[in-house]
Amino acid sequence: MSDLLKRALAEPGALVAPGIFDLISLRIAARSGFKALYMTGYGTVASHLGLPDAGLASFRDMVTRVATMADAAAEYGLPLIADGDTGYGGLLNVAHTIKGYEAAGAAAIQLEDQNFPKKCGHTPGRTVIPAEEMVDKIKVAVDTRRDGNFLIIARTDARTIHGLDEAIRRMALYSEAGADILFVESPESRDELVRIGRSFDKPLVANMVEGGRTPVLNAAELGDLGFKIALYPATGFLAVGAALTAAYSEMARRQGSAVDVPLHSFEDFNELMGFKDVWEFERRHARG
Prior knowledge:
InterPro entries: ICL/PEPM, Pyrv/PenolPyrv_kinase-like_dom, Pyrv_kinase-like_dom_sf. It holds the Pfam family PEP_mutase. The chain is an alpha/beta fold. The chain has helices at residues 4-10, 23-30, 41-49, 59-75, 91-104, 131-144, 158-162, 164-176, 190-199, 219-224, 235-254, 266-272, 275-284; strands at 15-20, 37-39, 80-83, 108-112, 151-156, 181-184, 204-207, 229-232. Helix 10 (219-224) links the parallel strand 7 and strand 8. Helix 2 (23-30) packs parallel to helix 4 and helix 5 packs across helix 6 (131-144). The longest helix is centred in the last third of the chain and has 20 residues, at 235-254.
């Protein structure tokens, strides 16, 4: 297992990890200068299955996407942080999930303390399991991984239902259980972010969802508050949704090409997807 993510986290400031949800978004993000990528569960379930992020995707659905995305990210020398939901069941399932995600090439897995079926962290109706059950999940995850460079991210969704005190209490327990990175989901003010940043000496995740419950700050601000990873999971698929809505609406209106909508250059898109390598291969192996 590569130590790329560990090395990136050792650098000053907060590491920005954009949400990627398919191989097109991955390739575009990888060429944009980031040092890590985040496989968003919401976006991946939506793009792969056309379903809401509500516990409907299985371990098999997700681990196959992890493998494909981690392999593509490795082409660019980038680590992939992957959403592992609740571990897809009990302790035995968590162990199976850890083995699968690590073998698939993820640099880190995010596990959360929601009840199954889980829901997206910035949507209503979430409930959490007892903290002691999540402690056991973290211990199993740490014991199961084969390489210490495969990092365990412990996330709590307790803030929305039980308040920040309970979320911080849980984070302390998950940290003691061996989690490498701590993640309090959906704090609701800058003051809450400040308090979280002051409460722990392990790397902290801030989840920046446009339109979500948490104030959206930039990486410099988050780094100053004590956070080490700034996730922007929804930016990509929200941008794609807006762009496709504009393009397809214009196409339907005109009953033809959406000529007045910004489009990616076809030539550049061919290059992005690797057609130059195909053409070079064919040139080298052409007969005659």
